[in-house]
């Protein structure tokens, strides 16, 4: 068989070709010299496609083959207008041209017209040389997200390209391909329950948010959410919650209507599409045990493929009891809302997705605890104390009410105890309370009106009572949502009568009990009944006195003696705090009395406590007292001292008063300066004779008085007596009244030191002036500085330090003034 190649030799002329054809075909082929002259070149085009059927995500390539023969193809060009049906496809604008020099450009509508110009230089201009066979490749891709609803899904689309040259007949060819987009029907659904866990509390709100989305690649007609998936099952979550309504609605993309169907009494009651979520007419929310929510569009099948999600918030409230059994939910429960989401695409069927959300109701307890106590649990009759009752919510959830009661059977019912009012200090609101009601309990008649408080208010003042009434109790009821662990404290004053206890046995116990109550959805808590005992003592004061005469050694006539008197009230809450303390030191009239041998010459520094007043009195006959001084320390503690110049004084009295009462355990001190006499007062008898030392006893008393009236009348008092000895001696003739002592301080129990050891030792010099009259005292070591050094301690020791003298190592230094410390250099000081 004869065949003719598409690519012809440039040497074969058109005339020869015509003749050849004529010889082969006879009369059927007629030479046309005029046409050959008009188009001396022959231009051919062939178009093919790599895929005749493509799907989303796939690419296909058009290949355009061009042949130029017979002569050069001047101004050769290929134009390919891509079909507008494929405007939705992605074009790779990079064109591959091989086999001949060229340039290309995109233009036209949507920039989808390809023009390729061949640029080889040939006889007469540019174009294709005879024998050139270039190839052009153009690639398109089908997007993954293209919808099967695309108008040209499955439609064969032809793409034609045309080749032209100024000296050749135009030629065109086409290739056809079909884009096939399968329908993928899919949906998603999700559910969120907030809060997901809680304690049992009737009516507590929660929200179940249901979400759906058309994840198909096609427009959907509807999206449906069913909850629970099967409302007939015993695990239906509506067993523990009631529907109360709907919250926010978000339409899925393309939808504008929502329809709610309700499962009631075993069947579906259909709703109607609307712009807002609502139950079908006539359906009560509490009756609903299943829901079906349908999203649609008022304009048809327009729910966007792979569009944004839609949601609806279902509002719920916790039931008091299981719907199915009627038993209380206080025991707790965990339920799961199982949800089915359905998408419907016309002509393509449906797809479903399932999800779930759980809701836990923890069991609720109703438990309270408390305590009651007294600031001072041991007090004297006639005084007061503060009782405080505390309560605590020990439930694992909130309490709606929380009550502290001082019952009528408690301490206020005692005839000797009176309600003295609430105390503001120490009162606290329990966390979560929003208000409170205070109710009064009286022993007869109509109780005063309740006091209603708002959060943060103080407890009310004591109400006015009708004649003869007495408050024997009260009740403070807090309301709100009192949190688990919240506490409250209710402090109130108790006034105890003076005759609450007799002198014999002198003590009485009065018991008190408080009630702590609470209520929540678990019911009433078991009442807590804390108790405490108040011990009441017969009013009493306990005061002690100590006395010290300094120095404890004997002093000569003219020597000084200091008497220290210290009164202390006993620190015990059962004793009355005194408001007056009187310290008296007076001559007994006996010949061996301290006052017979000593004269009072001054009041040594004596501190007057802050808030107190000190009155100092003296006597010259042991009977009549004269005010010596009054010191007022209301502005702060004062240190008082004074000289006494009357040698006839035989007694002194210090009266400390404080209207607010001295605290228990407080101390009052009086310090007195005396000088030893040479003869006994009112006689010519020497106070000391010869070598004998004579003791003289000094006795003082203290009386403390409280402002509590005794049942039998008068005020409560206590007293104490203390004594000490002052001793007088005779100073040997010529020895004087100065005393001096020197001692080496031991180291490890010894004063020895090794020669040339360079060890240090300390010598201590002590002196004492036994009488008045010395203007100065000089201590010298060695005694005679003119003594040769070789005969003194300075021969073997170097002086390295004179240690500081202060009140810690010499309590009397505060009475001296050190004028100078001098060093002897062998010639002068």
In short:
This protein has three helices and 51 strands.
Provide an overview of this structure.
This protein is mainly β and 829 residues long. The chain has three helices and 51 strands. Strand 12 and strand 13 (168-179) form a beta hairpin. The strands form eleven sheets. It has a seven-stranded mixed β-sheet, with no helix packed on it. The protein has a seven-stranded mixed β-sheet with strand order 39-49-48-41-46-43-44. A six-stranded mixed β-sheet has the order 2-13-12-5-8-7, with no helix packed on it. It is elongated.
Low-confidence spans: pLDDT under 50, at least 5 residues? 1-37
The largest β sheet comes out as:
7 strands, mixed
- Number of helices, counting only DSSP H or I runs of 4 residues or more: 3
Helix content: under 10%
Compute the separation of the termini in Å: 157 Å
The fraction of residues assigned to DSSP E strands is over 45%
Counting helices, strands and paired strands, the structural category is mainly beta
Q: What is the oligomeric state here?
A: single chain
The outline comes out as elongated
Kindly state the number of beta strands.
51
Give the strand order of the largest sheet, numbering strands 1, 2, ... along the chain.
Answer: 15-24-23-17-21-19-20
The gyration radius over C-alpha positions equals 60 Å
Let me know the average pLDDT: 90
């Amino acid at each position: 068989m004869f065949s003719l190649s598409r690519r012809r030799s440039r040497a074969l002329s058109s005339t020869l070709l015509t003749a050849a054809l004529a010889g082969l075909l006879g009369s059927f082929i007629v030479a046309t010299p005029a046409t050959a002259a008009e188009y001396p070149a022959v231009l051919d085009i062939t178009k093919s496609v790599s895929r005749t059927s493509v799907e989303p995500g796939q690419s296909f390539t058009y290949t355009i083959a061009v042949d130029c023969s017979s002569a050069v193809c001047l101004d050769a060009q290929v134009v390919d207008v891509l079909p507008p049906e494929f405007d939705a496809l992605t074009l790779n604008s990079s064109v591959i041209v091989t086999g001949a020099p060229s340039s290309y450009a995109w233009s036209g509508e949507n920039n989808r017209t390809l023009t390729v110009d061949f640029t080889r230089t040939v006889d007469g201009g540019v174009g294709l040389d005879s024998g050139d066979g270039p190839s052009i490749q153009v690639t398109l891709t089908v997007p993954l997200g293209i919808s099967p609803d695309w108008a040209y899904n499955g439609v064969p689309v032809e793409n034609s390209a045309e080749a032209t040259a100024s000296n050749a007949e135009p030629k065109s060819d086409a290739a056809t391909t079909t884009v096939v987009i399968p329908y993928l029907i899919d949906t998603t659904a999700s559910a969120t329950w907030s809060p997901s866990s809680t304690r049992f509390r009737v009516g507590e709100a929660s929200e179940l948010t249901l979400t759906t989305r058309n994840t198909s690649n096609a427009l959907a007609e509807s999206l449906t959410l069913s909850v629970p998936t099967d409302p007939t099952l015993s695990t239906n979550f509506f067993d523990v919650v009631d529907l109360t309504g709907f919250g926010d609605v978000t339409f899925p993309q393309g939808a504008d209507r929502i329809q709610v169907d309700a499962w009631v009494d075993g069947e579906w009651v259909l709703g109607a599409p609307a712009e807002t979520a609502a139950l079908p007419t006539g359906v009560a929310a509490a009756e609903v045990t299943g829901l079906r929510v349908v999203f649609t569009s008022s304009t048809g099948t327009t729910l966007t493929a792979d569009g944004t999600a839609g949601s609806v918030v279902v509002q719920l409230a916790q039931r008091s009891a299981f719907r199915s059994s009627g038993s209380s939910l206080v025991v707790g429960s965990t339920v799961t809302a199982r949800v089915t989401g359905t998408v419907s695409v016309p002509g393509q069927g449906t797809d479903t997705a399932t999800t779930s959300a759980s809701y836990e109701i923890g069991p609720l307890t109703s438990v309270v605890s408390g305590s009651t106590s007294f600031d001072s649990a041991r007090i004297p009759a006639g005084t007061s104390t503060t009782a405080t009752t505390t309560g605590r919510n020990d439930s694992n959830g909130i309490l709606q009410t929380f009550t502290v009661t001082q019952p009528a059977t408690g301490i206020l019912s005692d005839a000797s105890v009176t309600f003295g009012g609430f105390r503001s200090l120490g009162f606290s609101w329990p966390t979560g309370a929003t208000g409170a009601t205070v109710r009064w309990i009286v022993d007869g008649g109509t109780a005063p009106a309740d006091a209603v408080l708002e959060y943060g208010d103080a407890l009310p003042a004591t109400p006015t009572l009708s004649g003869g009434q007495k408050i024997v109790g009260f009740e403070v009821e807090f309301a709100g949502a009192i949190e688990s662990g919240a506490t409250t404290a209710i402090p109130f004053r108790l006034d105890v009568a003076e005759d609450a206890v007799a002198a014999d046995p002198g003590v009485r116990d009065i018991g008190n009990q408080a009630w702590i109550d609470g209520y929540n959805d678990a019911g009433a808590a078991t009442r807590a009944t804390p108790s405490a005992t108040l011990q009441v003592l017969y009013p009493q004061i306990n005061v002690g006195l100590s006395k010290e005469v300094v120095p404890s050694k004997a002093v000569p006539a003219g020597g000084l003696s200091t008497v220290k008197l210290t009164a202390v009230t006993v620190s015990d809450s059962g004793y009355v705090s005194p408001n007056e303390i009187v310290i008296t030191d007076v001559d007994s009239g006996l010949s061996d009395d301290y006052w017979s041998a000593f004269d009072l010459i001054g009041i040594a520094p004596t501190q007057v406590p802050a808030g107190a007043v000190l009155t100092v009195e003296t006597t010259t006959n042991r009977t009549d007292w004269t005010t010596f001084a009054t010191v007022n320390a209301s502005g702060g503690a004062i240190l008082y001292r004074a000289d006494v110049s009357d040698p006839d004084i035989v007694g002194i009295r210090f009266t400390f008063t404080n209207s607010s009462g001295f605290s228990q355990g407080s101390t009052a001190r009086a310090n007195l300066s005396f000088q030893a006499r040479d003869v006994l007062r009112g006689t010519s008898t020497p106070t000391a004779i010869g070598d004998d030392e004579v003791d003289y006893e000094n006795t003082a008393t203290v009386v403390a008085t409280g402002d509590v009236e005794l049942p039998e009348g008068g005020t409560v008092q206590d007293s104490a007596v203390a004594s000490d000895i002052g001793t007088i001696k005779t100073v040997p003739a010529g020895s004087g009244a100065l005393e001096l002592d020197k001692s080496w301080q031991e180291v490890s129990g010894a004063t020895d030191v090794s020669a040339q050891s360079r060890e240090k030792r300390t010598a201590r010099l002590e002196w004492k002036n036994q009488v008045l009259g010395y203007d100065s005292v000089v201590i010298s070591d060695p005694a005679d500085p003119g003594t040769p050094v070789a005969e003194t301690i300075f021969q073997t020791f170097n002086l390295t330090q004179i240690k500081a003298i202060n009140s810690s190592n010499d309590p009397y230094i505060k009475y001296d003034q050190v004028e100078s410390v001098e060093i002897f250099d062998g010639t002068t000081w």
